[in-house]
Amino acid sequence: MTRFTVNNQPVEYRLDPQTPLLWALRDASNLTGTKYGCGTGQCGACTVDVDGQARRSCQVAIGTIEGSYVTTIEGLSRERNHPVQLAFLAENVVQCGFCIPGFVMAAAALLRRNPDPSEQVIRDTLTNLCRCGVYPRVVEAVQRAGR
Ligand code: FES
Q1: Whether pLDDT at 147 is above 90
Q2: Could you tell me if the CB of 48 is within 6 A of ligand 1?
Q3: Could you list the residue range(s) of the whole structural domain that residue 98 is in?
Q4: 43: which strand partners?
């Protein structure tokens, strides 16, 4: 049994401790906002927050995060949109939208550490992949969210 907290709720998973967090969230907890893209840690579609750090959940075995605090896109902001989500809307970032939860989670983690990141810092930190190529609008939105 692996125990940790997801979106402020205690959870217990009776799964192999090697199970990727991505699949525990999606299949056991039905938190499908966290997306499966590559499964190899490359794309960032599966990004969630683990103890304040943006982590690629396909690469995090649940047995390694016992007692941790996990936040998914569903738990980022419960009552209204998070400032990063509002900025993504204002900048019309979304095209197909598949990669967006991962970008939002990575951006929120960045802005907690650095509320005024330069374009270079944003590009260096948000290494998530987007097949639609919305990267310039992501940069604009992250800067807007930090203002
Ligand atoms: Fe985890 Fe692509 S699905 S990085």
Answers
A1: no
A2: no
A3: 83-146
A4: none
